[in-house]
Design a protein that fits this description.
With 337 residues, the chain is of the alpha/beta class. It is built from 15 helices and 10 strands. It has 2 domains: 149 residues, Periplasmic binding protein-like II (D-Maltodextrin-Binding Protein, domain 2, 3-Layer(aba) Sandwich); 141 residues, Periplasmic binding protein-like II (D-Maltodextrin-Binding Protein, domain 2, 3-Layer(aba) Sandwich). Strands 1, 2, 3, 4, 5, 6, 7, 8, 9 and 10 form a 10-stranded mixed sheet that branches. Helix 3 links the parallel strand 1 and strand 2. It is globular and about 95 Å long. Bound molecules: fe (iii) ion.
Length: 337
């Protein structure tokens, strides 16, 4: 009798304890769709789980495929968060009503206003600078000044550009339209096209290889590609030039995230988003890809810091999305393929 009472007591106790010990570890989870590859996100997710006990499950794919999937899944989506590069992509996700606004003092304190959506549907988490890289044996840095100046005939057959199909260049041209107006921006892009030394190139790394090989003097690339290339071969005759330092500043874009419209774990997802903007995660998020932290209190990776500090264009990057279609049409008219 006593034994059976004790058995029942221990069974009940076990259930009670396991409810509080086992359950909370798995009770909360966040599902992430990420266009950033696993090695760029896993370290932050592991740190988040360690700190909060909230599990993070993720799927990685190209941004187009993830957006299509979110659209198709609608309110049945398992995803709570979308992570992708480029404000143009996040803007497109918001336009397609795939994201929901988040009100968070932590996010507004950690992320400068121009690097997040004014409607709070997405937030920048790292900064990527799109800057000039030139051949140190062929070009004197004093000859360089702005993106617009690359349209000057003195750069005839000296310019290499990545294809206009890439969202990075669409965002760059969109920001130039915002700055100069459409007519002036078109004049600049036509000047670029007239100065091209080769047909537009498939990616930033190849564009720099063309510059290093002396097939052109200068190109426009994201700095992390420069970092990767120079780590592989520090002897390449390449250097970074920060344009527009006397006026608007360097064109910057972001990698960022938003909470999905039909998230079922919204509170946990907001916690993850806040964590990614925090001092603890900012270096992880930026340094793994040689980008710059969005949180201005955090210094970049020491290798990235050797490229020097620079003035960033403070225009809200939402413009990159709003003017994307206009930019694509403009580049097409100007013959930039
Ligand atoms: Fe990239």
């Amino acid at each position: 009798m006593l034994r059976s009472i004790l058995n029942r007591f221990f069974a009940a106790l076990f259930c009670f304890v396991s409810l509080f010990v086992t359950q909370p570890v798995y009770a909360e989870q966040v599902v992430v769709y990420s266009a950033r590859i696993e090695q760029l996100i896993k370290p932050m997710f592991d740190a988040f789980t360690k700190e909060t006990g909230i599990r993070v499950r993720y799927t990685t794919d190209k941004e187009g495929a993830l957006l299509a999937r979110l659209k198709a899944e609608g309110r049945n989506t398992p995803a709570d968060m979308l992570i992708t590069a480029d404000a143009g992509n996040l803007w497109a996700a918001a336009q397609a009503k795939l994201l929901k606004p988040v009100v968070s003092d932590v996010l507004t304190a950690n992320i400068p206003a121009h690097l997040r959506d004014p409607q709070n549907e997405w937030f920048g988490l790292s900064i990527r600078a799109r800057t000039l890289v030139y051949n140190t044996q062929r070009v004197k840095p004093a000859a360089l000044s702005t993106y617009a100046a690359l349209a000057d005939p003195k750069w005839n057959r000296q310019l290499c550009l990545r294809t206009s199909k890439k969202v990075y260049n669409q965002s760059l041209v969109a920001m130039m339209i915002a700055e100069y107006g459409e007519a002036e921006a078109e004049k600049i892009v036509r000047g670029w096209v007239a100065n091209l030394a080769t047909d537009p190139i498939s990616d930033d790394t190849r564009a720099m290889e063309f510059v290093a090989a002396g097939r052109c003097g200068v190109t426009i690339v994201n700095t992390y590609y420069y970092g990767r290339l120079m780590k592989k071969d520090p002897t390449l005759p390449l250097a970074i030039f920060w344009p527009n330092q006397e006026n608007s500043g360097v064109h910057v874009n972001i990698s960022g995230a938003g909470i999905t419209r039909y998230s079922r774990n919204e509170q946990a997802a907001i916690k993850l988003l806040e964590f990614l903007s925090s001092d603890k995660a900012q270096n992880l998020f930026a340094d793994v890809n040689m980008e710059y932290p969005v949180n201005p209190n955090i210094a970049p990776d020491p290798f990235v810091e050797t490229w020097g500090s620079f003035k960033k264009n403070p225009m809200n990057i939402t413009k990159a999305g709003e003017l994307q279609t206009t930019a694509v049409k403009l580049m097409d008219r100007a013959g930039y393929r």
